[in-house]
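Entry 12.
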Amino acid sequence: MRKLYMEQLEPGLALARAIYNDRGDVLLARGVMLTSRYISALEALGFYAVYVSDGIGDDLDPPEVLSEQLRVATYKHVRELFDVVQNVTSLHGKAGRQDALTQLSTSTGPQVAQLYRDVEKIVDEVMTADTLSGVASLKSHDSYTFEHSVEVTVVGVMLGKRLYLPPQELHQLALGCLCHDIGKADIPTEILSKPGRLSEEEFAVVMEHPRAGYEAVQQFLRSSDNIARHVVWQHHERQDGNGYPRGLHGNNSFGGTMDLRFDKSLILPSAEIAAVADVYAALASDRPYRRALKPPQIIATLRNMSGSHLNRELVRRFLSILPTYPVGSEVMIISGSLQGHRGVVTEVNPIEVHRPKVRVMLDPEGRKLTPFEVDTKVDRQIELATTSYSEEAQLISA
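Predicted 3D structure (tokens):
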């Protein structure tokens, strides 16, 4: 199966994975043949890509760090919590902020109980994965905030696992990541979904969400959840001290401790992990104002941001579990005896995630070959690059 953008879809292609709505109900089942009507309806609902069977690597099933069932259920549960917070805060308005916060402690009981159950399940599932397979969100608006929260949680736990965090700290990290954007319940939808650059006034509103989120989770998380609350409060702080809301700074290292016994001007390590996960998930998702970056672009961006924005050591560790070319990626061979050939990644090596196995399918002139596989971990002369969208179309039609 492959992930295709809407502009690449044609009637007659079969869905390789089911499409769900924001409530977790199946919109289109696996195996359904796409029609022009279905494609238009999915675009109208905010979908920008789907997984299809199109004759290119149909036997490939990109590994999912989180099962689709748990992912969709958690999207739904996070949305329900956001809705409660939004309803309570809008009911009281800015003048009644304290009354709203007080009410949150009694209004979110069922949603918060479900949140803790989801955290347990997410940590259990993620612990069995070796590498990330990419962001699974297929929508660019409406449910983005909720889907993003789940993606950040998955990535954060994957990185926490790579750092050998003990289970209790992984659960605190996951809880904080799931709630990290809860303060956006106070932000008008027209700002969150704005397709262009935010004005200074609009960005000032957005910058309030870590503080608003921290005030909210203070009311409904357990008193022992200090780390989770600080993830919510600090996930937009920067290593150079130019983040918000408090201008904390980091030291670009990771000592392995996740407690609160440190210089109060330093960012909590768990919040630094969440910051890396937050940036990655945002870069890997389509937004109204730009298309998702491809993995090599994401890796380059993370490296550029490390040191000043993101913790340099955490980025280094994160890149050791982030494949440059995930399973199902279309690639071109740019060096060695097969230079110019194109194909699809079939397997990622968990030890050397940047040197995958590739099924070669097209020669340099675009002619279809009898497929054969090469292992770039064995043949070190082979270097890869992603194909352009036009080249992807050529792969599809070959």
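Annotation: The beta strands are 2-5, 14-15, 19-20, 26-28, 49-53, 330-333, 342-347, 357-362, 368-375, 384-386. The chain has 14 helices and ten strands.
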